[in-house]
Amino acid sequence: MIAEYLTGAIIISALLFLNRNRLLNYMLVAIFITGQCAFTAYEYNHRNVDEFFGFFKPDALSILLLITLSIISIPAYYHSYVYFLKHKDIPQQRGIYFSAMTMLIAAISAAYLSNHVAVTWIFVELTTLSASALIYHRRNSRTLEGTWKYIFVCSISITFVFIGILFLSIALQQAGHTDLSFPDLLNNASGLNIFWLRLAFIFIFTGYTAKLGLVPMYTAGIDAKDKAPSPAGALLGSVLMNVGFIGIFRFYEIIAHTSLHLWANHIIMIAALLSVFVSAVYMLKVKNIKRMLAYSSIEHAGIVMLGLVAGGIGYYAAILHIILHAFAKSSMFFQMGQVYRIYKSKSIYDVGNYFKYNLAGAMVLLLAFFCSAAMPPSGLFISEFMIFRSLFEAHYLFVLIVLLILLTIIIWAFGKNIFKLLFTPAVEFNDEEVEKIKWYESISQFVLLGLVIYLGFNPPAEFIDLINDAIKNLPH
Amino acid sequence: MINVLLITFAMTLIYLSIANRMGSYIKILVFQGLLLFGVSFIELKEINILNLIFILFETIVFKTIAVPLLLNYIIRRNRITREVEPFLPNFISLIIVTFIIIVTFLLSNIIEDPHLNKIYFVVAFSSLFTGLYIIITRKKIITHVMGFLVIENGVFILSLAVGNEMPMLVNTGILLDLFVSVLVLGIFVNKIGDVLKDVDVEQLQNLKD
After folding, report:
1. Residue B208 falls within a domain, yes or no?
2. What is the mean pLDDT of residues B108-119?
3. Which residues of B touch A165 (CB under 8 A)?
4. CA-CA to A473 of 20 to 30 Å: which in A92, A109, A141, B180?
5. Banded model confidence at residue B117, pLDDT cuts 50, 70, 90
6. Angle, helices B49-57/B22-43, rounded to nearest 10 degrees
7. Are the beta carbons of A145 and B204 separated by less than 8 Å?
8. Residue B74 placed within a domain
9. Does B177 touch chain A (CB under 8 A)?
10. Residue B155: which of B127, B130, B135 has the closest Cα?
């Protein structure tokens, strides 16, 4: 099925690229969304079945993330249409935009489902290409700068991942194997040469941090999420980060079965804590709301990795957190598109009193802020609380204290800016020609935020089973 | 013979650190492509003929002819001045690159591995770090791309070290090469030339907090 899906996605993407007709564009996208949902349903019903010569296998984690992706992709397309209705609509640019977005979603799906180190790597590389077309959409010098930095940093990180894979293959050859698929690596994990495995871990981890958004390679992602149009930014800030997560997670599973487990934990912990620290520092300083959201994503990526490090209940919480964060953050990015249409600016100095201009949108922002800051009733509160607990139980008390202090700073800075946007009247803002935003443009965000609350507080049994199945290979 | 080629490759890295003109950089890249052609021709005896042809094609046509021509074209089209404009004096660059090579050489002594020829490891790592060093210390965007190409060459050498057992990995590496170089070079540097007047990293400092 994956082969058919990818062929279909490539064909649709090519047609979108060539097509100049608006109606045909709508239809192609509708076909793709239907296909994406059907594909997700198919993979869900064929769990743990090898596909396409064993290169792909829908295991529990990939199915969870795939469902997340399919849910987010629908509002992403919808808001893209709104974006094109309200902004300059040049048929050629529209074609490239939708073509790139389709390619991005297909590449992310394939990267989730991949069962082989090199296959994951190839599709991660494809996401860089399609994402850069989205970032460059506005075609001015600033988007050019953002795109250039994104491509360059991602290319270097993807090279790092490749070097890591080479080291892994050296380690594997010494153990007498040549198969780089994840189950085989997992079975042979204890026989791998420690020296090469250590090098492989450092390179692969560093490489994938560009996608996940951790120190050291997080910088490119910030500019990308800021400069891409809001619907594309929502994809970059949620599901594309999960690609980096799955890359690190699958390799971490292998490492966890070797004597390097503790060492790898320390490496990840340092990177994660530094990420939260960097996020806290920039949140205090940043004046651009979209960049602020991007830094908040970095904080969440750090928290997720800390959950993974702590182990125990932290494994479960990390998976839950990465899924719920995708919903919360994407809804916030979707909302930013509307904010920009009202104020024509992303700077915190130019916005304010959002409740007056767009009631539904302001409710979304308020709720999304509570969700992202992990306050009740957000489901992220549950997952974050579990991560704190696991850190406590793993005797990482010092880490926990530092983390809590940094999170307090982040919530304060985040709240200060969001409440400025919502309540304080903007200085010298002329509200005579403000665009009236329809309430139904906010429905999708409410649905996503509803999911965050629902999945956190009342998770269906099937959802819990899937998460438990996803972490079954980690040592308990 | 392979040792001679690889040591010559390491020497080109030292030359790269003190080269002062764009032209010399391109010539070094051409020369590195030729060296890689030689290494892969001698080293990859055991893989099948089709794979070998693909790899040789990549080194000779792509690395030695196409990419340098493209770089030349970009430099002429965007009227990039021929000085490299490093942030640090060449003498310090020379010391740092030599230091990189010595450190990787010392590091390689830890490896106790009968399968792997250590010299591959040394040369690959040296060119990886030299490439990163060039990216950090040079001013023009086009030199960043050249630094990236040096990194790519290092990765290619590393993949040759495991190439006989796993030809698939070498091919994937080549795909990376083709893909990234074409994307980064062809599309982007030209775009930057169109939009920005001066192709300099100082133009790319608008996005910050």
Report:
1. no
2. 78
3. 169
4. A109
5. confident
6. 170
7. yes
8. yes
9. no
10. B127
Phi-psi region of A179 (alpha: psi -120 to 50; beta: other; left: phi over 0): beta
Q: In A373-460, which residue ranges form alpha helices assigned H by DSSP? A: 379-393, 397-422, 443-457
- Across the interface, whether the CB atoms of B183 and A129 are under 8 A apart is answered yes
pLDDT of residue A409: 96
Collect all residues of chain B within an 8 Å Cβ-Cβ radius of residue A286.
Answer: 209
Determine the residue of chain A that is closest to B153 in CA distance.
Answer: A159
CA-nearest residue to B204 within chain A is: A145
**Cβ neighbours of A476 (radius 10 Å):** 7
- pLDDT at B195 exceeding the cut of 80: no
Domain boundaries, position B105: 2-191
Residue A153's closest chain B neighbor by CA?
A: B148
List Cα–Cα distances, A122 to A394, A398, B174, B180, B199, in angstroms: 36, 39, 12, 12, 31
Query: Distance of alpha carbon B143 from its chain centroid, rounded?
Result: 11
Which SS3 state, helix, strand or coil, does residue B86 take?
A: strand
Q: Hey, what amino acid is at A200?
A: A
Asked if the Cβ–Cβ distance from B206 to A142 is below 8 Å, we say yes
Inter-chain CB proximity A170 and B115 less than 8 Å: yes
Work out the pLDDT band at B45, boundaries 50, 70, 90.
confident
* B172/A122 touch (CB, cutoff 8 Å), yes or no: yes
Nearest beta carbon to residue B162 from set A170, A282, A285: A170
> How many domains, in total, are found in chain B?
1
Cβ contact B206–A159 (<8 Å) = no
Contact call for B141 and A178, based on CB within 8 A: no
A201 contacts A264 by C-beta, under 8 angstroms? yes
Summarised one tens digit per residue, pLDDT across range B9-40 is 999 999 999 988 889 999 999 999 999 999 98
Q: Does A22 touch chain B (CB under 8 A)?
A: no
For residue A243, which of A122, A333, A340, A409 has the smallest C-alpha distance?
A122
**Which residues lie closer than 8 Å to B5 by C-beta, 6 or more apart?**
B35, B38, B39, B42
Distance between start and end Cα atoms, chain B: 53
Q: Which of A228-232, A312-316, B110-114, B151-155 has the lowest mean pLDDT?
A: B110-114
Q: List the one residue out of B76, B93, B84 whose CA is nearest residue B201.
A: B84
CB pair distance less than 8 Å for B209 and A178: no
Residue A169 has a pLDDT of: 87
Give the residues of chain A that fall short of pLDDT 70.
none
Amino acid (1-letter code) at residue B81: T
Reduced to 3 states, what is the DSSP secondary structure of residue A116? strand
CA–CA gap between residue B181 and residue B184 (Å, rounded)? 5
Do A320 and A467 contact (CB within 8 A), yes or no?
Answer: yes
Q: At what angle do helices A194-212 and A261-285 cross, to 10 degrees?
A: 20
Whether residue A131 contacts residue A150, with contact meaning beta carbons closer than 8 Å, is answered with: yes
How far is residue A60's CA from residue A319's CA, in Å, rounded to a whole number? 11
Residue of B nearest to A295 (CA): B209
Instruction: List Cβ neighbours of A433 (8 Å cut-off, separation of 6 or more).
Output: none
The reply to whether B166 touches chain A by the CB within 8 Å rule is: yes
Residues of chain A contacting residue B172, judged by C-beta atoms under 8 Å apart: 118, 121-122, 162
Binned at pLDDT 50, 70 and 90, residue B202 comes out as low
Task: Looking at the complex, report in whole angstroms how far the Cα of residue A419 sits from the nearest Cα belonging to chain B.
Answer: 20
* CA gap A28, A19 in Å, rounded: 10
Q: 116-145 in A: which are within 8 Å (CB) of B?
A: 118, 121-122, 125, 129, 132, 140-142, 144-145
Q: Is B196 a domain residue? A: no
